Amino acid sequence: xxxxxxxxxxxxxxxxxxxxxxxxxxxxxxxxxxxxxxxxxxxxxxxxxxxxxxxxxxxxxxxxxxxxxxxxxxxxxxxxxxxxxxxxxxxxxxxxxxxxxxxxxxxxxxxxxxxxxxxxxxxxxxxxxxxxxxxxxxxxxxxxxxxxxxxxxxxxxxxxxxxxxxxxxxxxxxxxxxxxxxxxxxxxxxxxxxxxxxxxxxxxxxxxxxxxxxxxxxxxxxxxxxxxxxxxxxxxxxxxxxxxxxxxxxxxxxxxxxxxxxxxxxxxxxxxxxxxxxxxxxxxxxxxxxxxxxxxxxxxxxxxxxxxxxxxxxxxxxxxxxxxxxxxxxxxxxxxxxxxxxxxxxxxxxxxxxxxxxxxxxxxxxxxxxxxxxxxxxxxxxxxxxxxxxxxxx
Length: 394
Known about the structure:
By secondary structure, this protein is of the alpha/beta class. Helices cover 39% and strands 20% of the residues.
């Protein structure tokens, strides 16, 4: 086979795979690494996962996300079946496709943790007594209902209201479709051509006397070693690297928000990009929560990272976060952005971290740039419009 023929054949194979695997028909990847990153002293179980993509014929860019299609916890499925007095062998409809058994539908097709409004109303209607739920379902009690539902799952309502009976077919009609979870890719295809890496905090907590588990995080951590892991890339054009490899970048990614920036650094290393790279990372404790610490310190020694500033919030009496480290380096941040044309990236928690980082950036622009509040806000909005200030927050 000539080189040209081999190239054409490979291209045809990739095209066939691309047509075959879609969001509706994800690629059955294989989990090859499941490694805990956080130390035993940590309050979190943070995992590094590597998925084998050999033969998938798809691609992604650093900054994109990977959709992972989990299956539900078999123990929770069995508990729901038992509580309903079913066998699990009953035929029920699926959201799409041919009918299947009740157990398979609960495992693979439906969301079985968070109660839907339709499910709650049905419990209130069918239970012999559900005064609290009936009261909270009133239109003007929305906030109270949300507070009441925190930490509550579907199985709790079934167990607490045994008089509310449902046939399997009725029950699945009260559920929503099981949705994939999106994770920022933490690796570059140029560095790992047949793999994708991601970092995940495994969700586990107790509520109402029960151990709760995150659907996808527990699937990956506990049940994915010997089964296919269906995946499909999700493009995030708003969060890609600058086109010019000489452009400096500032990255703020505490916790699992470091994922895309690990990928950025791999990409820039392989590409030989000359742009300076500065990372702000934060977590609770340096000794047990420094995700990819060895890699990041190695990048510092190699010069790939020009700056690495870490905030350990619980290693001293006063809590220190990434925004505090930003203020400590305000003059240098301003120089990188205003004089050097750096891009500014933020990834992580939208509820607090991203808001605090945004407020700190505006304060730096105001104080270091000699601007008033209105001018500083205009400057930051201009960065956004020029796509030099990019956020991937959730």
